[in-house]
Amino acid sequence: MVENIIELKNINKEYEGHNALKNINLYVKRNEFITLLGPSGCGKTTTLRLIGGFESPTSGEILFEGKNIADLPPYKRRVNTVFQKYALFPHMNVYENIAFGLRIKKIDEDTIEKKVKAILSLVNLEGFENRYIDSLSGGQQQRIAIARALVNEPEVLLLDEPLGALDLKLRKEMQIELKKMQQKLGITFIFVTHDQEEALTMSDTIVVMKDGMIQQIGTPEDIYNEPKNAFVAEFIGESTIVDGIMIEDFLVEFSGTSFECVDKGFNNNENVDVVIRPEDIKLVSLEEGMLKGIVESVTFKGVHYEMMIKSDKQEFKVHSTKMEPVGTKVGLRIDPNDIHIMKKVR
Amino acid sequence: MFLHTDVSNINDTVLTKKNRNSLFYRMKKNRMAYLYILPAMLVVFTVSIFPIIYGIGLSFFNANLYTMGNGTVKFIGLKNYVKALGSIDAEFFVVLLRTFIWTIVNVFAHVTLGLIIALALNRQNLKFKGIYRTLIILPWAVPQFVTALVWKMMYHEQFGFFNQFLGLLGIEPIHWLSNGKIAFIAVIIVNIWLGFPFMTMVATGALQSISREYYEAADIDGATAMQKLRYITLPLLKPAMLPATILGTIWTFTNFNVIYMVTGGGPSKATEIVSTYQFNVLTRQNAYSMAATYSVIVSIILIIITLINMKVTKALSDEGVE
């Protein structure tokens, strides 16, 4: 059995002279929950539509279990899609919506009934067969959309920002439920979102995209802790990015101070971006501080306080459970592990 | 004692609630608002409500040029209705039957043609879509009587376009407007030409509001173009097309311009429909009450047709799409 269920090789997609995707190479493992993450217009939905068969690549190959499917119509791929706005037929009831695909495939009524009942039970909506779509809540509609896709027993389920229309509480519940569902079914989910928290919560692998290119592929931990460039660092979680100079391996200078770090392989005195997460900056006494600064603003965020601290013309965002009033002089300490050095791209 | 007080209180509450709901109370309370809408209400009453009431009233009198001239107009009850509907071979029944045929053929053609053209113009890769759509609206945008007169000229037996063209092919000229049956078909063609753009516009608007995702969802299931049309497009067009069809039925049933301009109801009343027939009763026979009676009958027929249509198709209801 091929380990990679889907492979995108050197995929390019052009729309009227505009490059929506540039040389995309992506491998999706069997039974994995993979998320395409990026801002609007980064090419994540286009990638999904290519896999779904709604678009053809301008060049490159899409392999499904090693076979090129780039020219196959959607119904000949063992892939199904949950659309952003669900695309449930408003003139059909829940049963008819789920049974639609099976009817087109001319499956007998008894089998259809069994399958529809089973799938409704999977999405916890037994007894909803006769309800019309507009009588369902957003969350219920979403489950029906998933049920309609899953009833065709796809090997890969594509989900195009399916949680976008739900309120925050429901979205969080559905994140957990979707992940459970994927584990229970043991199929591959390819999920598209622009919400980094959603990606971190649900994914086995995250693919961060920008301007039609893949920026980084990795586990949520990798992406968060070791962002490959300033864009990834900025897009995933909050961070302060400052200009620095890599004096030599394991030593970087920024804000007029030299810091030990864990990065190497840069040229001596190379200009770099230094990325520091707000929760990695510790507030200490002035004497203990590697940097000194003044608290410029304080915002209460529930679990922690967010403070902007100015030090040598540079502002650092700091998250701490301990609050220092505005105007207080404080010391800042950053451990070598928490300093992330990136090549300058800007 | 307590009980008595309680009951009287409840009665007071009920009365107050009832009073509050009364039109007089609400008018008094919102006096300024009613004052603001008064001018508009007066206009509506004068140009719309009063003529309806006057027309219905007139149908119960014997008003015509003669009786109005010598002041002998009097209430005659349902005599006009008996005269109009009393005899099954009465002229009015023939006209009514012809009006039904006229309406059914026209509305069917309008909706079918409108849908086909809208679907053809809705293809994603079609170039110059905007130009085609503008051209399609043209018959609708030109005043009806202008179009009707142009068609009348084209139907001219000697110099009209159709017979000239047939002559070029060596075919005998057709008596477009002098043969009763052919004249009826000729006016129907004119009205189809005039009416389909409206349905095309309604269908185009409705088609554009159908999300592409529905079709993509059907693509995943391997639905053919015909299956997509049957299971997605047509059901989703229903909420827009049904009210348009009801409107089209009313417009066509009461159409006057086309027949009056092209054939004038002739030859030998062979193309007369209710509205032209009424007009002739009014202008040639000066039988005002009789004309009013026909109007009331037509209105009742249209109300019944509309109610049946709405009941059967659930158009205009919240469940219209189901």
Tags for this entry?
heterodimer, A: 346 residues, alpha+beta, Rossmann fold, OB fold (Dihydrolipoamide Acetyltransferase, E2P), five-stranded antiparallel β-sheet, 24% helix, B: 322 residues, mainly alpha, MetI-like fold, disordered N terminus, membrane (chain B), ABC transmembrane type-1 domain-containing protein (chain B), cell membrane (chain B), MetI-like_sf (chain B), transmembrane helix (chain B)
Terminal CA distance of chain B reads 58 Å
Indicate the structural class of chain B. Answer: mainly alpha
Residue-averaged pLDDT of chain B = 86
Overall, the morphology of chain B is flat
SSE string of chain B, helix = H, strand = E?
Answer: HHHHHHHHHHHHHHH
Largest sheet of chain B: none
CATH architecture assignment name of the largest domain in chain B: Orthogonal Bundle
Q: In which range does the helix fraction of chain A lie?
A: 10-25%
Rg calc of chain A:
24 Å
Number of helices of chain B: 15
Task: Tell how many strands the DSSP assignment of chain B holds.
Answer: 0
| Name of the level-1 CATH class of the largest domain in chain A | Alpha Beta
GO biological process, one term (chain B): transmembrane transport
Protein name (chain B): ABC transmembrane type-1 domain-containing protein
Subcellular location (chain B): Cell membrane
Membrane topology (chain B): Multi-pass membrane protein
Structure, described:
- Chain B: Belongs to the binding-protein-dependent transport system permease family.
- Chain B: This is ABC transmembrane type-1 domain-containing protein.
- Chain B: The chain crosses the membrane at residues 33-56, 100-122, 134-154, 182-207, 240-262, 287-308.
- The complex is a heterodimer of chains A (346) and B (322).
- With 346 residues, chain A is an alpha+beta fold.
- Chain A is built from eight helices and 20 strands.
- Chain A has a six-stranded mixed beta sheet, sandwiched between helices.
- In chain A, helix 2 packs across helix 3, helix 2 (94-104) runs parallel beside helix 4 (138-150) and helix 3 packs across helix 4 (138-150).
- The model of chain A has no long low-confidence stretch (mean pLDDT 92).
- By secondary structure, chain B is mainly α.
- Chain B is built from 15 helices and no strands.
- In chain B, helix 2 (23-29) crosses helix 3 (31-58) and helix 6 (91-121) runs antiparallel to helix 12.
- The radius of gyration of chain B is 27 Å and the shape is flat.
- Chain B starts with a helix and ends in a 9-residue tail after the last helix.
- Classes of the chains: A alpha+beta (346), B mainly alpha (322).
- Chains A and B meet through strand 6 and helix 2 of A and helix 11 and helix 12 of B.
